[in-house]
Write a structure and sequence with these properties.
The chain is of the alpha/beta class and 561 residues long. It contains 21 helices and 18 strands. The N and C termini lie far apart (71 Å).
């Protein structure tokens, strides 16, 4: 089946063809014909990323009256990000239509701007519940002519505490409206909304209720609590092309894990409830643009997060409820692409896997923690593949005769070996004689069994990443003041600069995590830091030549100020 067979008008077909749409997804193929040809309400059950926005958006665009000065369709979404995304997608679908006005209203932005946008009444309004109620109380939004009410990611809205707001909004809409409810899971509260506010809704389900996406592979890794962070790093190193989310239970754990990853040289950042909206937007923009490779997030902060092409979701801890696992793992494997979901569990937590398997209707496979040798091999192959696919810049040609002359006394194998060593020696050194983390887990399991067999109750260590091994890919050492030089860089508090960002930047630019950094002081416009005198020349040269240092100016601090 293709979109031409669904009964959509030509303006819409042209727009979605330009967006690359060819065949409808399963939920689109079911929902679009029903909305165009029937009049009933719909409960749509499908995972995030299966194309639900087009499923309800295209029929709405087909049926609204563009000459009307009333709001005809209201789309409620749980988060600012999802609200903006729905409005953007709907605008793209309507690019070939005349007179369609779509407005998104949400918290976290100056309401005056949104009030101005509403001076021209939109036919389609996309809103978060809290901001919508605010605008209703200001008499700026009127819902008495609503023909379509869509609750998108309804289970997420309930998880975020919007039930009372949803009831308030629904009571202000006309009974003759058509209600469409879309959700990844079907908790009891969703069933109550359907019973109280919908008229004999037809249920259109892709897969079983609460089932995980079919093209996601599910794994668990057994770890000791004390090596949980070390196992996470091992997994990140084993997947050098990872583009994923690491889920943590608490804000503090999210901050701790993200900060440790950045200090250890990983391209990561945190998303949690303590961030301002501007900070959250900055992190999300970097992640969407792939300027960040790893996002460490809480479940609450990631709600409504919509990013395509994620390769992995890693559960630093399993969530407390099984439906949350469905949401987490559904962040990857979207739009018919494959994905991997990996849960880190201690032997005591392993029993939680079976109940999740029953809910998501997918088996988990146990994954061994990659050994140091496996990581090095994977990284080497990845580097060689990148080199093979790289198209050299033609500007290099002018230097090639001199380079060939310099290398004329070396054979090919030796040249290859030495160039690989330039990039690879540090990783080899880090993983040389690395601990067998699988063996340490098995030893703990054996010790626990032996303890039980002796009738000993044993002792249970507390959770947390503070027990991690001291070995780190960046060993920060105190530097004697007499052996250091004071440098400054043109970034400060006003730029959101902080010690961990400085350390991460030095890691990226120099590729050397052994450089000794001493005291760090941050002013509004500059960051000052002490560096081992032996490393200053290396550091200055790296910042002068590396593309990663573009825009950063580093220099020696003169005098006492």
């Amino acid at each position: 089946m293709n979109f031409n067979e669904l009964g959509l008008k030509q303006e819409i077909l042209t727009a979605i063809a330009e967006m690359g749409f060819v065949e409808p997804s399963e939920i689109q193929a079911e929902v679009i014909p029903y909305l165009l040809n029937e009049t009933g309400d719909v409960v749509g059950l499908a995972q995030t990323g299966t194309g639900k926005t087009a499923a309800f958006g295209l029929p709405i665009l087909q049926t609204i009256d563009t000459k009307s000065k009333h709001t005809q369709a209201l789309i409620l979404s749980p988060t600012r990000e999802l609200c903006m995304q729905i409005a953007t997608e709907m605008s793209k679908y309507a690019s070939g239509m005349h007179g369609v006005h779509i407005v998104a209203v949400y918290g976290g932005e100056d309401i005056r701007k949104q009030l101005k946008e509403l001076d021209t009444t939109p036919q389609i309004l996309v809103a978060t519940p809290g901001r919508l109620i605010d605008l209703m109380e200001r008499k700026k939004v009127h819902l008495e002519n609503i023909q379509y009410l869509i609750l998108d990611e309804a289970d997420e809205m309930l998880n975020m505490g919007f039930l009372d707001d949803i009831n308030t909004i629904l009571e202000k809409t006309p009974e003759a409206r058509r209600t469409l409810l879309f959700s990844a899971t079907m908790p009891n509260e969703i069933a109550k909304i359907a019973m109280n506010y919908m008229k004999n809704p037809v249920e259109i389900s892709v897969g079983k209720k609460n089932e995980a996406a079919k093209n996601v592979e599910h794994y668990y890794v057994l770890t000791k609590q004390s090596t949980r962070y070390e196992v996470l790093k091992r997994l990140l190193d084993y997947y050098p092309d990872i583009y994923g989310i690491v889920f943590c239970r608490t804000r503090q754990e999210t901050k701790d894990v993200a900060e440790k990853l950045m200090v250890d040289g990983y391209n990561a950042d945190a998303l949690h409830g303590d961030l301002s909206q501007a900070q959250r937007d900055s992190v999300m923009n970097k992640f969407r643009l792939r300027a960040l490779q790893i996002l460490v997030a809480t479940d609450v902060a990631a709600r409504g997060l919509d990013v395509n092409d994620l390769t992995h979701v890693i559960h630093y801890n399993l969530p407390d409820d099984r439906e949350t696992y469905t949401h987490r793992s559904g962040r990857t494997g979207r739009v018919n692409k494959s994905g991997i979901s990996i849960a880190l569990v201690t032997p005591r937590e392993k029993g939680a896997i079976k109940p999740i398997e029953r809910v998501i209707n997918h088996p988990f496979n146990q994954m061994e923690i990659p050994s140091g040798g496996m990581v090095c091999q994977k990284q080497l192959y990845y580097m060689v593949e990148k080199m093979q696919s790289l198209e050299p810049d033609k500007k290099l040609e002018r230097y090639m005769p001199d380079v060939v002359e310099l290398l004329k006394n070396m054979d090919r194998d030796d040249i290859i070996r030495r160039f690989i060593a330039l990039q690879f020696n540090q990783l080899l050194e880090y993983y040389h004689n690395s601990t067998d983390l699988n063996a340490s887990v098995q030893q703990e399991i054996k010790s626990s069994r032996d303890s039980k067999s002796r009738g000993s109750k044993g002792s249970r260590r507390g959770a947390g990443i503070d027990d991690e091994p001291k070995k780190s890919r960046r060993q920060m050492r105190v530097v004697d003041k007499g052996d250091t030089l004071r440098l400054k860089i043109n970034r400060g508090r006003k730029d959101g600069f902080e010690p961990k960002r400085l350390l991460g930047l030095i890691n990226d630019v120099t590729g050397d995590k052994s450089i000794k950094i001493g005291d760090i002081d941050i002013s509004p416009k500059f960051t000052f830091f002490d560096v081992d005198k032996k490393c200053v020349k290396q550091l200055m040269q790296a910042f002068a030549s590396s593309p990663r240092a573009k825009g950063f100016i580093i220099g020696e601090v003169k005098g006492n100020r």
